[in-house]
Design brief:
globular, four-stranded antiparallel beta sheet
């Protein structure tokens, strides 16, 4: 099932290119309104999801690099062990892997993750994110769907 790694590479490349474009065209904190619910806003996240440990003083960079490396290794092992029929699970893991690699590259090279997508409604803003985060989120949804489908298939046997 390692043949699904092309999707991980595609996510990684799209993520890194989009972050380079955001940094080239936006100043930190600058808001570019695209719709009534979607902005571009360049932000730097030194923490994890929702800026968890973002102000921890710098040591968290190495923690998140270590966690990222462990996650990448675990996903590669999981992908390697999949059966040919586990296509949805393979797609899910490949998306998560590509997103994890995209954010890991940022942490290693810059010490922070580059975010630029800002969704909002009625004055409430979802924390800024990037394409790597979107790929991870979609991968998790597919992972849960794969688990539900395989659970149902087991019950029918």
């Amino acid at each position: 099932m390692l043949r699904y790694l092309w999707l991980s590479v595609l996510v990684l490349l799209a993520d890194q290119l989009s972050k380079q474009l955001a940094e080239a065209r936006l100043a930190a904190g600058q808001v570019v309104e695209l719709t009534g619910w979607f902005n571009l806003r360049l932000a730097y996240n030194r923490g994890a999801a929702f800026s968890f440990l973002g102000e921890a003083g710098g040591w968290q960079r190495w923690l998140f690099i270590g966690v990222g490396l462990l996650a990448v290794g675990a996903i590669l092992l999981w992908l390697h062990g999949l059966r040919a029929g586990d296509r949805l699970l393979a797609w899910a893991l490949a998306l998560i892997l590509g997103g994890a690699l995209g954010n890991l590259v940022d942490r290693v090279l810059y010490g922070h993750v580059v975010d630029f997508i800002d969704w909002h409604y009625a004055g409430w803003h979802w924390p800024a994110f990037n394409l790597a985060d979107a790929a991870i989120s979609l991968g998790v949804v597919l992972l849960l769907g794969s688990g539900l489908l395989s659970g149902r298939a087991e019950q029918q046997r």
